[in-house]
Design a protein that fits this description.
The protein is of the alpha/beta class and 292 residues long. It contains six helices and 17 strands. Strands 1, 2, 3, 4, 5, 6, 7 and 8 form an eight-stranded antiparallel sheet that branches. The structure holds flavin-adenine dinucleotide.
């Protein structure tokens, strides 16, 4: 069972909890799904929010790492834990591949702003690589299959059409296709090498959709920076409302360290640094300035 500590003032709803690994599953090349039991976090978190994860009892790595909510899971009708997907690329994620049922994990969250309500038009989610993880909960909430948060968020509208355009470099990296196969979700896949679905980069699927009979009214995007920059450019040109979820590296996750600041355009045309962890990670596309 998890124990709970309140975090210092900056994010009043976030808690630090001792969670426990329930299961781990390999989804694709270097890609895994971890299930943690942590009822306090599971009952609060909303689509697009994230949490920090740390292996207890080690200073290597010293800092926690951020991961987006993939989904919550239930026991007896109550959310008791979280699933998240990760790619093993460095210190913590390599350690995580060895975690198994019963292992203790330090977690703090929920953090960040999450995605806005989907509204009632065509919502298109555009994901690159592991950037697909925030969109399972968005899809399930949008289709009325699940609700999240405490009290559960009541949506004021439901999308008339819901699409996920998901791009990976090759079919061996496709993760979570089973979970994303649901009635009401149009799943479109692109691979860089043409080994599955559309042969090309995922922003091309967005371009195609914009020029189809049912163009998107709203776009949510998460993935590698060059891909998000391409999606930002298309949406600004085509005047489609768009939100980008950044994956800026961060140390604390709750606004104290300023390690995750990004330049953001202000209403008066000037710009300022904003903390991706508390003012984001989801930003309106037109406000973000990508630095080369
Ligand atoms: C809000 C948010 C949500 C996120 N959600 C997810 C998610 O759901 N799933 C997911 O997989 N990721 C997610 N990420 C990214 C995730 O946090 C990182 O993949 C994770 O922090 C990597 O930690 P690590 O300790 O394994 O890697 P680190 O050891 O910290 O390495 C990170 C990167 O730096 C490189 N690196 C490390 N050391 C060196 C060096 N000496 N020289 C050059 N390069 C080096 C590594 O190769 C790697 O690419 C998210 C990030 C944010 C901000």
């Amino acid at each position: 069972m998890s124990s709970e500590t309140t975090l210092p003032g900056l994010v009043p709803t976030a808690r630090q909890v001792s969670a426990v690994v329930v299961e781990q599953e390999k989804l694709a090349t270097n890609t895994y799904r971890l299930r943690l039991k942590c009822p306090e976090l599971a009952q609060q978190i909303r689509p697009g929010q994230f949490f920090m994860v740390k292996e207890p009892g080690t200073n290597d790595p010293l800092l926690g790492r951020p991961f987006a909510l993939f989904d919550t899971y239930e026991e007896d009708g109550l959310s008791v834990g979280i699933d998240f997907g990760y790619v093993s690329i460095g210190k913590l994620t390599n350690l995580m591949t060895h975690w198994s049922a019963g292992d203790p994990v330090q977690v703090w969250g929920p953090l960040g702003n999450g995605f806005p309500e989907p509204g009632d038009g065509h919502l298109m989610m555009v994901a690159g690589g592991i950037g697909q993880t925030p969109f399972l909960a968005v899809a399930r909430e949008s289709l009325g299959l699940k609700s999240y948060g405490n009290p559960p968020r009541e949506l004021t509208g439901r999308p008339s059409k819901l699409t996920l355009a998901y791009g990976v470099r090759s079919k061996d990296y496709l993760a979570g296709i089973e979970q994303f196969t649901m009635e009401g979700l149009d799943l479109q896949i692109a691979t860089d090498d043409g080994s599955f679905g559309h042969h090309g980069f995922v922003p091309e699927l967005l371009q195609n959709a914009i020029h189809s009979d049912t163009p998107p009214d709203k776009v949510y995007c998460c993935g590698p920076e060059p891909m998000m920059e391409a999606v930002q450019k298309i949406c600004l040109q085509e005047k489609v409302a768009c939100w980008l979820s950044l994956e800026s590296p961060m140390a604390c996750g709750f606004g104290a360290c300023f390690s995750c600041v990004v330049p953001v355009r202000q209403a008066d045309g000037s710009w300022d640094y904003k903390r991706s962890c508390v003012e984001g990670p989801v930003f309106p596309a037109e406000t973000l300035i990508f630095e080369d």
